Amino acid sequence: MQLLGQFKKIHFSKGLISLYSGKLLLEFGGKIFGIFFPIFLYQQYKDINLVVLYFIIGSLGYALTMQMGAKLMTKIGIRASLILSVFFRIPYFAAFYFFPSNPALYTAIALVSTIIIRNLFWVPFHTESAKLSDKKTRGKQLSVIFSAAALLSMAAPLLAGFILERWDFAVIAILAGVLCIISIVPLWFLPPSKEEFSWSFLETWKYFLHPFNRRMVFAYMSDGLVNIINSVFWPLFIFTILDEQYQVMGLLTSGVILVGIVLRLFIGNLLDRWQKYKLVRVGVALNATAWFLKTLVVSGLHVFLVSTYHAFALIILRTSLDTLVYEKAADRGHYIDEYTVIKEISINMGRVIGLAGLIILLLFLPMQASFVVAGVAVLFVNLLR
């Protein structure tokens, strides 16, 4: 009851509600599409290296063009940039509807679309999130928002698994595209807002490489690598363990999400009273052990148990880390968007370098080697200060 009383005191601004209502719709569409996306690519390409290469190109393209996206945000405003990113999801999802007819062509269309989408969406979104969230209750605000996202995420794998057992990935592409287009409605009600991104292309990379930012850059690079391993290699691995049963994988994923929802609210309450750095360190330690445990998984029961433990670890790390990141961004004042750009470049360069190394590593070792890499990489998130 005391926990519920704490959450009743949270105030969400209209802008924050509009921003995250749009984000939740986008995320729901993305989850329906994304949970089986690496599996779809593997089934089409028939080569894990080509799947990894797809994600390398997408991340590298985004990192190299991010400064242009931030400049465009300066000209058209945050709301317009977010809404424009939604429209570019139409050719993205259309590419996967037609993908089997010409994989090379539609891979190119999908990659160009996703680079544009990321440029138009992520820097404005993170900038606006840091500005609109309340410093005193940011931990509780984010935990409520993430829990709402988790509720939707529970339905996403169940729905995706149901569709794939009966139809094909093209149906999921249509549904995800429709949900994303609907997200324009709440985003339209965002208050007009502008941020001026002041760095040139060379200045951006100068600050990225500056020794002063080295700890921050390495921390975000590590976080980016761990996230992409979790998004690509873990789904591929458990799909194999579960004998390629879409519905079983969807049901198991939803069950793991359900376990973590109440815990996420509890952690959010702690965040506003405890030091974020301490919770980040706890989350890092738990995540590292979770990744090492994943190397021992050999059955569906193991998948559920280890995934549940990892969900617990991720809730502590992600809620505390994301809250800390928004605090650090908000503290930059006028340079909030510049800080966000450095963070996004770091995350994506971590993915590029890490995935390139994994292509070589997996020539000699099984897929579980990627879990060891993730377990070691997550330790470097502690470098964030």
Rg of Cα set:
20 Å
Overall number of domains: 1
Structural class: mainly alpha
CATH architecture: Up-down Bundle
The low-pLDDT segments are 1-7
What is the highest CATH level, the class?
Mainly Alpha
Count of strand segments: 0
CATH topology: Growth Hormone, Chain: A
First-last Cα distance: 34 Å
- Largest β-sheet summary: none
Instruction: Count every helix, treating DSSP H or I runs of 4 or more residues as helices.
Output: 17
Residue-averaged pLDDT, rounded?
84
- Helix and strand sequence: HHHHHHHHHHHHHHHHH
Helical content band: over 70%
- Report the portion of residues in β strands: under 5%
Superfamily (CATH H level) name: MFS general substrate transporter like domains
- How would you describe the shape? globular
Care to describe what's here?
- This protein has 385 residues and is mainly alpha-helical.
- The chain has a single domain, classed as Up-down Bundle (Growth Hormone, Chain: A).
- It is built from 17 helices and no strands.
- It has helices at 2-8, 14-34, 37-45, 48-76, 78-87, 89-98, 103-132, 138-166, 169-182, 184-188, 201-209, 214-241, 246-271, 276-294, 300-330, 336-361, 369-377.
- The protein is globular.
- It starts with a helix and ends in an 8-residue tail after the last helix.
- 48% of the residues are buried.
